[in-house]
Write a structure and sequence with these properties.
The complex is a heterotetramer, with 2 copies of chain A (about 270 residues) and 2 copies of chain B (about 300 residues).
Chain A: E1 4-15, E2 20-26, H1 28-33, E3 39-43, E4 53-57, E5 60-61, E6 66-72, H2 76-82, E7 89-96, E8 107-113, H3 117-129, E9 133-140, H4 149-153, E10 158-163, E11 170-171, H5 174-182, E12 189-193, H6 196-208, E13 212-216, E14 232-236, E15 242-246, H7 247-250, E16 253-255
Parallel strand pairs in A: 8-9, 8-12, 9-10, 10-11, 12-13
Antiparallel strand pairs in A: 1-2, 1-7, 2-6, 3-4, 3-7, 5-6, 13-16, 14-15
Chain B: E1 14-16, E2 19-21, E3 25-27, E4 50-55, E5 68-71, E6 74-77, H1 85-97, E7 104-108, H2 113-126, E8 131-135, H3 152-164, E9 170-173, H4 181-190, E10 195-198, E11 202-205, E12 207-208, E13 213-214, E14 220-224, H5 229-242, E15 247-250, H6 256-265, E16 269-272, H7 274-278, H8 282-297
Parallel strand pairs in B: 3-16, 4-7, 7-8, 8-9, 9-10, 10-15, 15-16
Antiparallel strand pairs in B: 1-2, 5-6, 6-14, 11-14, 12-13
Helix pairs in contact in B: 2-3, 3-4, 4-5, 5-6, 6-8
Classes of the chains: A alpha/beta (about 270), B alpha/beta (about 300).
The complex binds flavin-adenine dinucleotide (2 copies), flavin mononucleotide (FMN) (2 copies) and FE2/S2 (inorganic) cluster (2 copies).
The site of one flavin-adenine dinucleotide has 23 residues of chain A, from strand 4, strand 6 and helix 2.
């Protein structure tokens, strides 16, 4: 593992939507090692309140040691982050976790719901680099909440958009949109990130079409190093019995088929 | 008047229950996994001792998520002692841990007194273990789930059972969730404990007001971190008056200044838990900071601080 | 689905031990002086109840300074129950307090059971007092200084003695510094308590590493504020399962969201202490915030929240 | 009492020395009521850590509703304060406490040690306005730590300076300097603010010369309203018995003769 703890300088901080911000950091040690699906763990406070770090997925990496984060302000940690400006230093730990596994030269499906776009943009980039054909399904509540559309459009992917209110693209859930294509197209592998309910539906569809599929999960975290066992998520073992695996180092990307989607789920 | 002290001359070494610690700082059980998790970030040989997650006889899958909740200056956890069990520990974790020079302290917990005894026996035979830390903050399944560590007599019986099965120093780890922690400490001392660790986490709870459900699936959790520091420090000070065996103080130590408070209160060594979850190199910074404090204060030897609070 | 609720229609009124509170929020004893100190900042008539500093039979000068120490997200205090004594309270403080419409709750403490009884008798006769809150976190001078509130039988005896001398509702305030707070709660309920307040402060200590002296002249102090919120909430939830009488929850309530957690855990009302020391109008903001929360949640009546945590 | 809680705008923030800062706030409600010796109680955090307010004496008031504070960075609260800039809002409570009592048309002695200058500058101004003759004794460790010298020199006071290292004025403690004048001059009243040891010496001298004397004391504070009894300081009653009085509302200014200067003192 190449996890490092560093002070990363803010290169740019930009508001992307009502509560969504983009942050570009200088963090060569992360860039060098980063895999799509991995995250960085960020100290969002100068005091002991709030205390814990906040995990944010790697959204993109640059050529000169930059990493890009995209996040929604949810509470005090992300609000603190939104107050940072170019030149500030931020304490980050990373890159952390098991990322997505990519084939080479195959057709793959990426299914992003809402902020689930964050790791999937980075994944799309690496998928293209590996010579894959990328079908990118991107859903959001409405048009205003479709972030990075221009960046995605500029990439050599097949982009399919859905919105819950129909303000852009397909009117309905992104998994429903995806389903339309599942009959006709065969994917070597599917990848999803988004709200838990959407991931469960994604997993169901993947199983139905007997497709290898990976999802990125979230749980509250403390250490981010696999030491505290605080970020456990419920998986199913070969015999269908529940066991718990750390999201931080055992994930955040899991095989969709291994995840326990049952009623333990929040 | 303060003397001028050379940093290289400062002595951080302490003796604890027959162990020699190159410095009095170690990780707190359960926050440091099995050591390997922190190895990418610093050299484990710099620690005063290595303390691993609680080991039970059988593997435990732990509690369902959510297991963590951040609270003001603290963390609630309900990991549920998730661990691979004694056998896997000995086979898969111990060989790695044996590579390091600081004494290895293995934390154990049982559901019955016999389980504690068996753990002690088998770990003592395993080789490479320097001491046992006995976690008595666990419910006694045979006696209606009363926590071993809350009843002096039960705590003493666990201690005696462990002692009878091991030649290793036995450190008993006390829970703060009692009316009189000194009564437990004295009972455990009489039963043969070589040292005490205190404190384990403080019982606590949080509720998510959106879902109206407990924030932890387990409802109750253990509170740790800076929030509990005053509680831990008082426990250490009180127990230091009550017993003669050495103490390992813990609870909310974030900086070397916090560590000094625990030493002054009477701890011979300290453990760092939650701080490491926030700042992975906190423990290394604390060791360095202790050295700086001694230099600043014109002291040559960290042992001059132990119990030196002026009442 | 949430209903649309009109703010003016929202009911905040609760019944507690025979008292009608226009809203479930009151100050915590000892942090609100005798009310007059906060009067320049808001109208005391907006409170659910008024709760004054602990009164003892004789005046107490309190502990020497320093009496306060800030800790992470908390405060340690050792005021030492400084108060002008019963007579001066009745003569000089009560007339002012009688002017306000919210029920007046007078907190009392004794060094012996007889002192508790005498306080109850004389305050009941004084007029203008709506209820007594019995602080049992005090050492019993006759029985070797053991804190009344740590032994179920002693707590029950204090309660019974107070009950026998008053027609007023008796609220017993519990200390969290016990192994099993439900045992104390049940003993006190059986002895006739009409309601319980919980929690009083948690024992704690701090050391000044420059002077190497305890930060408080009294060495030990009581920890309050957000740091202890998880501890308090768990105590409320536990006790709510164990007794039938209503609870006043307190400990680290800073915002209306915190107050909601306590109501969900089973408190019928809440008290605000440390928050008011930091933000003098915190209590008023909490009352307003509860109203907002009800509207937000589409609820008409705050009583729908009491004990409504979903396990 | 006229204590109010308000959001005061920072008008100016200036560094005055190595760790000493001046802060000018717009706080008309405080200015209007402020008496020398009173203080404001300031929330120095946006989170719950640090938790308590910090008391700072009123250093000066302006014509347009301004108050001036002068403080040394000691710990986290004052460090936070030193990070404020013009335009920021600060949560203050005040004015608080019993200030100094001034005669009119008399000779008075003001004895400031170090940051004890803070309330005494304001006192000097008001003393002059009331037609008093002001002897102002000002001591510090060294020349660099004599703040506001120009302002004092511009006032119609008799200024006497002392430094511990002799780098400016009298070489020695300010109370020793004052003592030289006590033989020849008679003061209607003396006032002091500074380190506790200096105040004790001031009180001893005042008693020796049978002079009415007032001192400004410090204790840790919570509410600042007289409600919590946390800021108690030891005084002596008429029979010489110790009792405790709130510094926040019973002080911070006390008659020097009432203060218990004994070994309870830190
Ligand atoms: C591996 C991983 C990657 C993530 N990547 C992103 C991302 O790229 N962009 C983004 O906007 N969000 C991401 N999240 C969610 C993000 O971490 C939370 O929204 C954030 O921690 C909220 O912190 P807060 O202080 O603003 O909110 P608060 O609600 O104040 O947080 C309180 C506590 O809850 C935790 N918490 C709250 N929400 C979540 C959550 N959904 N998952 C885990 N912990 C949570 C916080 O870390 C903190 O401990 C990711 C989560 C995980 C686990
Ligand atoms: C009435 C009054 C007026 C004051 N006026 C001034 C002033 O004008 N300029 C100035 O520089 N300082 C003044 N002080 C001292 C100032 O309040 C402290 O230096 C400041 O609170 C330190 O806070 P901190 O967070 O920086 O330090 P920390 O050491 O981190 O503070 C920790 C805790 O100790 C308390 N504390 C620390 N030192 C003192 C002290 N000397 N007195 C009271 N509480 C203390 C803090 O309020 C806090 O609760 C005054 C104190 C009082 C009581
Ligand atoms: C996530 C977590 C897991 C813990 N697991 C254990 C454990 O397995 N065994 C044990 O004896 N203590 C355990 N503890 C308690 C710590 O060892 C320590 O006693 C406590 O956290 C107080 O120290 P701190 O405030 O520095 O964290 C755990 C604490 C935390 C935060
Ligand atoms: C400064 C201070 C003084 C207190 N004095 C008393 C008291 O006289 N009697 C009492 O029953 N509780 C007293 N308490 C305890 C509070 O009433 C309350 O139970 C406790 O502080 C927890 O609530 P909080 O975290 O909201 O402050 C005091 C607390 C503080 C902080
Ligand atoms: S956050 Fe500690 S193990 Fe994952
Ligand atoms: S600070 Fe509360 S009484 Fe003075």
């Amino acid at each position: 593992m190449l996890i490092q703890n560093m002070e990363a300088e803010v290169l740019a901080a930009r508001q992307m939507g009502r509560e969504v911000f983009l942050l570009k950091l200088q963090a060569p040690a992360v860039t060098a090692a980063a895999q799509p699906g991995q995250f960085v763990h960020i100290r969002c406070s100068e005091t002991m309140d709030p205390l814990l770090r906040r995990p944010l997925s790697i959204h993109d990496v640059g050529d000169k040691g930059e990493i890009v984060l995209l996040y929604q302000v949810k509470g005090r940690g992300t609000a603190w982050l939104a107050g940072r400006e170019a030149g500030d230093k931020i304490d980050i730990l990373g890159p952390i976790g098991r990322g997505f596994t990519l084939p080479a030269g195959k057709r793959v499906a990426l299914v992003a719901g809402g902020l689930g776009i964050v790791p999937l943009l980075f994944l799309a980039r690496r998928a293209l680099e590996a010579g894959n054909e990328v079908d990118f399904f991107y859903g959001a509540q409405d048009k205003e909440r479709l972030y990075q559309l221009e960046t995605l459009k500029a990439m050599k992917i097949n982009l399919f958009v859905a919105t819950d209110d129909g303000s852009a693209g397909f009117h309905g859930q992104v998994t429903r949109l995806w389903e339309h294509y599942l009959e006709e197209r065969t994917y070597h592998r599917g990848y999803a990130c988004g709200p838990r309910a959407e991931l469960a539906e994604f997993a169901r569809l993947a199983a139905k079409y007997s497709m290898a599929a990976e999802v990125s999960l979230e749980e509250k975290m403390a250490c981010g190093l696999g030491a505290c066992r605080g970020c456990a998520t419920a998986l199913l073992d070969a015999r269908g019995k529940i066991y718990y695996e750390n999201v931080c180092t055992g994930g955040p990307v899991f095989n969709a088929a291994d995840v326990y989607w049952g009623d333990q789920v929040k | 008047m303060k003397q001028t002290v050379n940093r290289s001359r400062v002595n951080l070494e302490v003796q604890l229950a027959g162990l020699t610690l190159q410095n009095p700082v170690m990780p707190a059980s359960g926050t440091f996994g099995f050591g390997e998790e922190y190895a990418p970030l610093f050299d484990l040989n710099r620690l005063g001792a290595i303390v691993v997650k609680t080991i039970t006889l059988q593997p435990l899958i732990g509690n369902p998520p959510p297991r963590l909740m951040e609270t003001p200056c603290g963390v609630l956890n309900s990991i549920g002692l998730q661990n691979p069990g004694l056998e896997v520990f000995i086979r898969e974790k111990l060989p790695y841990l044996r590579r390091f020079s600081p004494p290895l302290i293995v934390n154990i917990a049982g559901r019955t007194i016999d389980e504690y005894a068996e753990l002690a026996e088998r770990l003592s035979a395993a080789g490479g273990v320097a001491a046992l830390e006995v976690n008595i903050s666990c419910p006694n399944v045979k006696e209606g789930g009363i926590v071993f560590g809350t009843v002096p007599d039960m705590a003493a019986r666990v201690t005696a059972a462990v002692k009878s099965q091991t030649h290793l120093p036995v450190i008993v780890k006390l829970t703060p969730n009692v009316t009189d922690i000194t009564a437990i400490a004295r009972a455990v001392e009489e039963a043969g404990a070589d040292a005490l660790s205190l404190i384990n986490t403080v019982r606590g709870m949080a509720i998510d007001i959106k879902t109206r459900r407990p924030a932890l699936a387990n409802i109750v959790g253990g509170l740790s971190g800076p929030a509990i520091k005053p509680v831990a420090l008082y426990a250490v000070w009180q127990v230091a008056q009550a017993v003669k065996i050495p103490l390992i103080g813990m609870g909310g130590i974030m900086t070397s200044r916090d560590a000094v408070e625990f030493l002054l209160a009477g701890a011979t060594a300290v453990a760092v838990g939650t701080a490491g979850l926030v700042n992975p190199t906190a423990i290394i910074e604390i060791i360095a900071g202790l050295e700086d404090y001694l230099v600043e204060q014109g002291l040559n030897d960290i042992r001059e601080l132990i119990g030196a609070v002026q009442i």
